[in-house]
Amino acid sequence: MFKMQSVSHRMGVLTVVERLRNQHGQAKAYKMALLEQQSARRARCRKRFDFWRTVAGQLATPLGIAYGANTGVSGT
What we know:
By secondary structure, this protein is mostly helical. It is about 60% helix and about 0% strand.
């Protein structure tokens, strides 16, 4: 599937957003962030979940997507 080799939730949000965009493109990076967010939710890791929620929100804006719309993910 997707390879998340050089991305950690301990990195800064903007660093991760930039790195994902450069490596995978905007749309694929957004999908990857949503998948990581879902993984964090399943693992019940609040810090990771909040981090990936922020990353997905940053990536959704340039795509013209209202974060959480039609994704099954709520913004709160």
